[in-house]
Amino acid sequence: MSKLVLRKMAQEHVYKVLFFLQSAAFIAFVINYSQKSDVVFAPVRQSPPVRQSPPATTAPRECKCIEATIRTAFDAAAVCKDVLESRGKISNCTLADINRRPGVVLLTTTNLAFLDVTLNMLESIKRTGVCVNTTVIAEDKKVFEQLRMRLDGDLAYRVLLTNSGEMDVIEHPRSHGSQYYGLMNKRQAYILALLQEGYEVLFSDADTFWFRDPFPFFEGDFDISLIDSVNPFGVRSGKSNFCAGFVYFKPTNASLQFVKAWVDALDSNKKKGRYTPDQNVMNGLLKSDKPVYVKIKPLDTNIFPYGPKFYDLLAKKANYSTVVMHAASIRGHEAKVTKFKSSDMWLVNKTTNEMLAEST
Ligand SMILES: *[C@@H]1O[C@H](CO)[C@@H](O)[C@H](O)[C@H]1NC(C)=O
Ligand SMILES: *[C@@H]1O[C@H](CO)[C@@H](O)[C@H](O)[C@H]1NC(C)=O
Ligand SMILES: *[C@@H]1O[C@H](CO)[C@@H](O)[C@H](O)[C@H]1NC(C)=O
Ligand SMILES: *[C@@H]1O[C@H](CO)[C@@H](O)[C@H](O)[C@H]1NC(C)=O
Ligand SMILES: *[C@@H]1O[C@H](CO)[C@@H](O)[C@H](O)[C@H]1NC(C)=O
């Protein structure tokens, strides 16, 4: 188990990002998927070799920096060296760092109730040194403003306001289907849109905590990669119960067809006034190979544990080097924050109310 070292805050660095501020951020709404079953311990796998990345973009000899807030697609040739090499205040990433992982997007969504949890995840990612083009979809205007205010100018992030209807700013219980699952069930369409643009997408709920770089685990021949809470690593069976909260999608034909069917099924339920848990629908499709067989790479739950398993391993002082933990099955904002704090994994100083007060 990695021991979390709480480091001193990043130096107060004020960046003057001149050209193109691709802002951003990301978040994931947090939701716990129930996964109680015990998983057979599997040996720790060696990380596969790190993906070969193309050389960093070099800045043009000469460029005209335009002071602008226009958000535009990345065009390395038009970006000045100082912009290319300046570090994002929250991500600690330069554009050159981000550009070393081309074609990959980290996606998360959030609402105001999970602003702090989302920022906690971003801070954990920063500490791993991972730099990835990140899209954070804000499900309400308040969280959108907060994220824009905090992440603007940091080139690792792109913060977008949802285009499929704003949601409530508060946390709702599961029993409030149209808000609770309503929120969850919007995410598949964002994933689909990115896949259709040809991106590989790592969707992460906002209640994850990153200890190490997960990307080396997404090597190999598969359509999607995710956690199966029932089966030991590497074995897929009819009993598999996959978790939809941390999933790597490759833009393959099978993934596209599967995610499209997932979106369609949720939409059609919604039209009938039903808010089916997205994860159940996903598992139903995967189990019946509908509309196509999807090649899955299951992740080892010893190193990609969900909440209870993570704390169980921690209590047993099990010697696993956690990559990413997902606070699934620890239900509700307060419970998640309390748990994170109990294991030195709460890295934000301010409550959401304090953050809101700052901006007024
Ligand atoms: C937390 O607060 C301390 C003390 O005010 C500050 O130095 C540090 O930067 C803060 N950490 C974060 C992650 O904001
Ligand atoms: C930011 O990244 C640089 C280069 O990797 C590293 O030297 C520095 O310690 C990092 N700063 C923080 C606050 O993580
Ligand atoms: C990041 O991904 C978005 C699509 O989500 C794309 O428009 C943008 O150009 C990418 N940025 C970089 C720096 O690659
Ligand atoms: C993927 O689908 C496209 C069009 O739907 C088809 O042309 C292509 O051959 C398919 N690729 C594979 C590997 O099945
Ligand atoms: C944990 O595993 C590492 C690497 O396999 C090993 O070097 C270390 O001694 C182990 N620690 C304990 C306490 O078993």
How would you describe this protein?
GO terms for molecular function: glycosyltransferase activity. Belongs to the glycosyltransferase 77 family. InterPro entries: Nucl-diP-sugar_transferase, Nucleotide-diphossugar_trans, UDP-D-xylose:L-fucose_XylT. One of its GO terms (cellular component) is Golgi apparatus. This protein is α/β, with parallel strands linked by helices and 360 residues long. It has one domain: Spore Coat Polysaccharide Biosynthesis Protein SpsA, Chain A (Alpha-Beta Complex), CATH 3.90.550.10. Helices cover 30% and strands 11% of the residues. The protein is built from 11 helices and 9 strands. It has a 7-stranded mixed β-sheet with strand order 3-2-1-4-7-6-8. A two-stranded antiparallel ribbon has the order 5-9. The termini are far apart. The N terminus is likely disordered. The site of one 2-acetamido-2-deoxy-beta-D-glucopyranose has 5 residues, from loops.
